[in-house]
Structures are given as C-alpha cells and as structure tokens.
Amino acid sequence: MPVEVIMPKVDMDMTSGTIAAWHVAEGAEVKSGEPLFDIETDKAAMEVESPASGRLHHVLAEAGSEVAIGKAIAWIYAPDEEVGAPPEGGSAGPTPVAPDNAAGEDATASLPAKPALTISPDHQAKQRATPAARHLARENALDLSGITGSGPAGRIARGDVEGALRQAKDRPSSAGSGWQPQGGPLVVYRSGGDTGAPLVMIHGFAADSAGWQKLEACLPAARPLVRIDLPGHGKSPRRPVDSFRSLARMVVEAFDAEGLEDAHLVGHSLGAALALALADIRPRRVASLTMLAPAGLGPEMNGGVLAGLARAGRKESLAPWLKQLTAEPQIVTESFVMAAMQARRDPALRAYQQDLAETLFPDSVQSFDLTPALDRLAIPAQIVWGRKDRVFPWKQALQAPGRVALHLLHDIGHMPHLEAPEEVAAVIAGRLKPAVGQPVTTTV
Fold first, then answer.
1. How far is 24 from 37, CA to CA, in rounded Å?
2. Which CATH number fits domain 1-93: 3.30.450.40, 3.40.30.10, 2.40.50.100, 3.40.50.720?
3. What is the pLDDT of residues 25-45, one digit of tens each?
4. How far is the CA of 210 from the CAs of 2, 60, 347, 430, in angstroms?
5. Domain ranges across the chain
6. Is pLDDT above 50 for 53?
7. Strands of 263-268's sheet, edge to edge?
C-alpha cells in the first residue's frame, strides 16, 4: 500500500498550513527523512520530511495551497508498486495545473476532476493561478489576490503577474511613499577562503553587508563567508514586503540559490530573527546559529530608534540615532557616520525603510513572534546580547530554552559585533567545531 503524506500539525493551535514549496517533483524518487515540502503557518515555517522511500504521486496541493491538518496531499509508492487512482479515503485537492503555454490555454481541461481540499475563503483566489505565475509573484513578494486573471475561469497566468509588476513600476510611488518596487534576487557577497563550512551573515535593519567588516577581521581567514543584503538595503532591490514571513521567504530563496550546506548562520537584530527563521525552515542545511541582539523574542522595543534611523537624511540627524545603538557613544565617530550616510542620501531608500519599519514594527511593537521556532531548534544555537542594549531588552533572551547558550556582555549595547568584535568572534568560533558538553550561560 502507498504511504499517505498528510499536512502535519507543528503548533498546538494550528488548524491548517500553507504549502510554500515542494522539494520533490511528482513522479520523482524520494528517500525517507529527506525534505519533501515546506509549510507555513501564522507561527511557523519549516521543512517536512518524507515519511517513506519511493516515488511521489498524486500531489493534490500545489505551492500556495492552504490545507487542513491531517488532510492527505500526496502518496509515496514503493518502486515495484503499481500506481493507480488516489487510494480510497484520501482527501484530494485542486485539479493540477500545467505551466503557462504560448496560447494561454487551460492545459488541465482534459484532466479528471478531483474533490476540493479544505481551503479557506481568503485563499480561494490564490488557487486559480499557474505555477509560473505563483513563482514570479513569490519572487517579487506580490499578492495574487489583487490581480485579475485572464485565463480560463479567471485563472492568473504569468503574463497577468508581469502586467501587474509593470503597472507597479509605472506608478510614481508605492503606496504614495516615494519608492518604486524592484524585482530580482537579493544580493549575496562571498569572501574569505575555501576551508570548512560557510559562515552566512545577515545584517540588521538600516545596515548592510559592509557592517560586518570589524567582525570579519577577527574570524578565521580560511573560512568562506557569505553575506546577504536584505531588500532595500545595500545593493539589494526594493522588493515589497507585506509581513515578516514574506521577508523570511526572500532570505530562504537567496540561501537556496547559493546551494549552501552545513552553514553556520550569524545574524544581527532583524537579521538574527531571519537567521532563526532560516534555521527553522532549512534545519538540515544549517550547522549552527548565532543570534546577536535578536528581534522576534518579545513585543517590547524602542521603536523611536528604528524610525529615526529610517528617516535620517543628513549626518546631523543620523548621528544621534547611531549613538543610541552603542553603549559608548564615542564608538560612533565622524567617519563612521559619514560612511553610514552614503547610501542614506537616496530618498527612495529612506522611504522604503520607513515602510519596512512600519510593516515589521507597527506602532513600535515587534509584530512577529519567533519563540516557537526557538523551541524547535535542534542545532547548536546561542544568543549574544549586550546588557546596555537600548533597542531590544536583553531579558527577552530568557525566552530561550536551556539548550540555547546565552552570552551576556557587560558595557555593550545593540551592536556587539561592532563594539566587541573579538569576543563575538570567539563565541562564533566555538561553534565552528563540534560542540562539547552542554551550553552554559556566560557573562563577559
């Protein structure tokens, strides 16, 4: 008998999940324990492993489908097992759709109809889109619900998404905020050597990859370094972000595109929250996680600092906010402010970052909660936090389970990698070799 693949329950209050992506094509072989598909919920985003070895058949829910907990979405057949109709009692899903063709015809017209999956009304419009349209919309963080489909029964095709993107670029601004959406992948930099597993670094809000320079100088020179610029930061495009989940998906796409394995993740602030989300979604490809003053572990924050950084368009207005990031204001020198100001001269960048801050931190509150992801971590993980952080309260680190090491730094603010690069590098280096013993809380 084929093995049924069902939508799992990964949170106590979870009633349904959205399939974000399939790792295995229908008809392809898969081994037990290998990644099979990604799911997303309001609180979680993670890989689901294959329950058996064999070939994947009867995939009933494509990427973007919302499925009730316990519903069957596919079956895995043994190599010598005959493949017939979906087994009796299985819950079937939307009629499969083929990629767009030149004529824009409905390639599913001749396929047998199947009963519908349990899909919420909010997602009904999303179900009528081709895979190519979904992929392009996901790449540009575009909401399909606002697009009128030109295909049969209103199905959205790739051309419809392309038209919506052109219209967005032709508008004078996005939501009247003074910036235009841009497509394309996030910019990724590689440096360092070629010995050992890569160190992947994700910067915080209003920063960019150049902000890691002091820390990089203290890390092993032979270690390959991979730095990701977040959207609207550094040289990455200003892609629309409507939630933390959509931002995390962009980072996952950049990580996947680099083909990284056994990666050691290091993230700061917002980047630390994204590194945690990445470790939650791609646990098999992450060796360790280091979070520096992470966001996402509690609602409280100093929203005035982030708002001030996003608005600042002159060095005179930027400097006071930068000094709020460190315990010792003299660390923020004139040359540091001038370097930080180079990119901020662009009013579109400032407008984008103001919108991003309002999306992720509305009314000066952290709108996303990553403590469930922290509880699920099975890899070596640690938090480094300055006791004089004036952006996020360091006591939010106490949300972490005991297996996550906690390093509290005296006389350090929100920028430990800038204020104490040698200490932070030593903490990271401890994870670049097999962990010994149980993690302990340390105070430096």
1. 7
2. 2.40.50.100
3. 888 999 888 889 888 776 566
4. 52, 45, 20, 24
5. 1-93, 188-443
6. yes
7. 188-192, 224-228, 199-202, 263-268, 286-292, 381-386, 405-409, 442-443
